[in-house]
Amino acid sequence: MTYLLIALAVLIPIPYMLQLPGPVFNTLGDYQGKPMISVSGAQTYPTTGEIDMLTVAVSGGPGRDTYATQALGALIDGQETVVPTEAYYPLDTTREQVTEANTVEMTSSQDVAVAAAMGELDMPYTVDLLVDDVTPGSPAEGKLKKGDRLVSVNGTSLEDDAAAPATMSSTVQDSDTVDLVVERDGSEVDLSLDPATIDGRKAIGIMMRQQFDFPVDVSFNVEGIGGPSAGTMFALAIVDELTPGSMTGGKHVAGTGEIDPAGTVGPIGGARQKVAAATAKGATLFLSPAENCAEVIGAADQSKITVARIDTLDDARSAVESYATGDTSQLKSCTTGDTTNEKGQQ
User: 163-166: which pairs have CB atoms within 8 A and are 24 or more residues apart?
Assistant: First the structure.
């Protein structure tokens, strides 16, 4: 019977995923022989040091099996995390859908990172909020079309507003009727929709995307890397390239954090694995989103790496610039009292 149980543990898959430290990439350096980030259309400056973006490797999940022996080994190792697959993906999710979602999130994070960098540097840009897709059978079907530009919602302008998606979402949640002005084929159209309950929340049934027009051209060489959590490191690298001198002072910095166009840094998944990867790679400063502090502090070897809490891109920039001068007194402390709230993964 003992041998049978051992065989079952080896051969029968379990509905869990393993998160483990993934590859590390210097956003100021090259990837596959080409610069990871290239900026043109404005004066750029040479820089030194490293601003590492971090990834999480995942074993298991949709389309891939995980076995009990692997999960046990991960728990013993301590650097890996065992999580139920359902915590991230519905049971019917396919591997192709996961790959597509990660790619979309990475592309979106690039545009948002540029927007955040432009805001940090007071470089004006324009942004439109567009309808990207309409859910069949939803209130928006037959009224809104892909490509419609959202001009206003319930009298609030959505034009040239980096926070327009949040404004749109909160308005829908708080309203029984949503009055929209959209631009379609060069003309404005007035529409009125009554939100419905879709997937447990009020919605009108559209996917939105932001279309940016920046004063600089930024290209990213990140093929094969997915997810949203590199946004803050991308934004830092762009700011570094567009400002004189080296932000890091030649030092080795790593960090993580999803970012919005206003420069607010949000929590990510796999923080434990990311600080382990950063330490192993030789980084001496780790930038942690505030809501990941508890997990990062619990996992970091603070004899090897200094952890700084960041709430905004400006926090991140200030932390790196202070650290470059050897002054750590200005760094915001990460404490175990900060709330951990994992969201997404890179």
Answer: 163/260, 163/261, 163/262, 164/127, 164/129, 164/210, 165/129, 165/208, 165/210, 166/260
Tokens of 136: 């069949």
CB neighbour list of residue 162: distance below 8 Å, 6 or more residues apart: 115, 119, 127, 210, 260, 261, 262
Pairing label, strands 13-14, 37-40:
unpaired
Nearest C-alpha neighbor of 246 from the set 310, 134, 325: 325
Instruction: Check: CB of residue 299 under 8 Å from CB of residue 46.
Output: no
Q: How far is residue 28 from each of residues 31, 280, 289, measured CA to CA in Å?
A: 10, 19, 21
User: Among 54, 53, 52, 56, which residue's Cα sits nearest to residue 20?
Assistant: 56
183 within 8 A of 210, measured Cβ to Cβ: no
Residue (of 261, 213, 206) closest to 234 by Cα position: 261
* d(C-alpha 21, C-alpha 316), whole Å: 22
Closest residue by Cα to residue 271 from 118, 116, 121, 79: 79
The pTM of this model reads 0.81
- Main-chain phi, psi angles of 121, to 5 degrees: -100, 5
Answer for the pair 343, 267: CB distance below 8 angstroms, yes or no. Answer: yes
Over the chain (346 residues), what is each successive 10-residue block's mean pLDDT? Answer: 49 64 93 94 96 81 55 54 58 58 70 95 96 94 96 96 92 94 95 90 92 95 81 97 97 96 92 94 96 93 94 97 91 69 36
Considering just the CA atoms, what is the radius of gyration of the chain in Å? 22
Whole-number Å distance between alpha carbons of 84 and 17: 6
**CA quadruple 102, 84, 208, 125: dihedral sign:** negative
Four-residue CA torsion sign, 201, 263, 261, 192 = positive
* Residue of 300, 312, 309 whose CA lies nearest to 330: 309
Residue with tokens 């997915």: 226
Q: Which residues pair with 319 in a beta bridge?
A: none
DSSP tag of 303: T
